Amino acid sequence: MNLFSQTITLNGKIFSSTDNSPIENANIFVEKTNFGSTSNSSGEFQLIFDLKDISNEITIIVDHIGFESTKINYNVNDNRNLDDVFLNPSVIQIEEVNVLSEKDDFELEIKANELTEKLSTDLATTLSYLPNINVLSFGQNATKPVIRGYSGNRFFISKNGNEFGDLSSTALDHAITLDLLQIDAIELIRGPKTLIYGPNTVGGVINTTVDYIPNPQEKPAVRLYSGSESYNNSYFGMIKIDLPYKNNQISFSGNSRNTGNQTTPLGELINTSSNNTIFDFGITNFTKKGFRNFIFEKLNMNYGIPPTQSGHIYGVDIKLFSNYYQFHLHEEINFLNFDDFHVKYLFIDYAHEEFENDAPYYDVRLAQKTHNFEMELKSNQTIVGTEFNYKKLMPDGFVWTPLTNRYNFSLYAFNETNLKSFDLLKSIRTDFLNIIPNPQMTRYSNLDINEIKNRNYFFISYSLGVRKKIDNFTIRSFFINSNRGPSIEELYSDGPHLGIYSYEIGKPDLDTESTIGFETSLEYKSENFSININPFYNFSNNYFQMDKMGLCDEEFILGYSHPCAGEDFIEWGSGSGWLYKYQIDEKKAEIKGLEINFQMKYGFFDLSYDFSNVIGDNLNSNIPLSYMNPTKHIFSTDFSLKNSNLKVRLIKLNSQNRLGEFETFTPSSMTTDLIFTKKLNACKNACCKGDLSVKINNLFDQLSYNHLSRTKDIMPEPGRNLVILYNFNI
Prior knowledge:
about 725 residues, Maltoporin, Chain A, 2 domains, 22-stranded antiparallel β-barrel, 4-stranded antiparallel β-sheet
């Protein structure tokens, strides 16, 4: 460092406080100036600034996603470089804590360095290693997470805080338009902050982080990802390239995943193969106080739904297309108490097509165009924003849901106040929803055309939370009143849903669904021991549920007449001949549960245990709600060495004998997973690094059944599965 020149150059290194590993792409900047830098793969950085533009006493801020921000006071007259900087993680590993962790709000994050270990074929399976999250499935291609008994529209799945623009929340066979190779982290958020994402957040928010806006690079960067799984003979890979040019950065990537049919200890589940491709391109212009960004992503998925006797005996094939466009402006500002401002516009062109018997034409097509405009002001403790969303649903084929326009305008705010004895978190959101159908037919099979008319909704959602620390104890608690308007399908559906072998009937006079929730967490944490107890309770006065209208007790045999021919709970002449009818209904519902987490650390050995259960009841009929998570126990032991880790994980699912209408008993199961991860240096210099993960799921090839699987009466869950993943960065 030379004090006689016009500039000062400070050198330093940044490390993780947990394992002393270097932190790449950390942001280092001088507070209230435009001078900044980022760390390289060795954690090293150079911070250069002009003497004439600063005072003698400056504050240097170091931050990185997943770590607590650190401030360093520095006097330029000291004529010294910075000491090594150690950042503390802002969250603890996903399998070691309850969802109420120590992030900004009631949040949990799976960071990039943990994804290699936890990555599975789909989002739901990746999250199923958490307490009270299970997989609702119809074969390996149609999977959705169920969080504390909630699925569909009762939690929000987002990509960088934005919706996917698909129809995944409306039906099980509509895949989430995401490949896990794309993502850098997953956040699971509950509590007051969820309302900035949407009103339908009683089950929380799952936010996937995709590196569409990379940190500025000094030189080109390449990331390679490849792997395979044995249970479906799959191969997958990704390449991502970042090219810097002056104050711009161009990024593009390609993903490919091909799978065969799912196998189980009892045989193969036919028509469950898939092939998916994703291409995305982005360009970011960095300014002194922010960035401008454009993203384009093109996704294609082709996958099968396995056959059943209750509908299509040959299965259904699905093609899915999505084109995703994003414009994003972000600026650092000094306005009132706000220091960040961003504007974002999304356009998503989506289509989903269903085919029978390898037909060259589709039987059902559901297309949707989404426009979303968002504007937001942020400070460290406050977020204020507005959002306008327009969707156009365009059904075609053997379905009578009308072409419909949906408009939603929202205002929202979140604030955290640090009082003397506790922290207070609060949020509010107002939504104006207008749904305008355009009936194209003079008659419907089950709905009165006079009921298919414009619907308007206005609702307010709000939440209040507190957080208090007393020595090693932390108490967290929140209340939420979450409201959501009905979906287009819940209102106006009248037709077959081939992918899930059902004929669905909506209810055009549905009102807003309202749910109140309470949650409390008591945590004790010391250096080598922690325990967390977390009960929750939710109540809805008008819980929407698509109910089966009847069940044929006798088995249908191919080649013979149907034993329930003529019954009004079956739609005849649809699909391969018949489908069960399902109709939306409203009911009083109560969902409650308990989660307990225990952790102990001793040297290089870690032990953790998670218990979770959920109980859902239909209070109108005094019977259990359908598709509730079974009680789950997760035992995990970790053996950590310098550059490697060995984990043994046991998952015990209790039998599910609290059965909703038309549900069947599911026996208990226990599976064992063995996971080995190792950090690799592929080159002699520090610029090349990678991670290797070798996993054996269901090590002992145990027979297990998933209560939330629509195919559990046909086949059990996958047996032994060898997974090899390799992540390489240059």
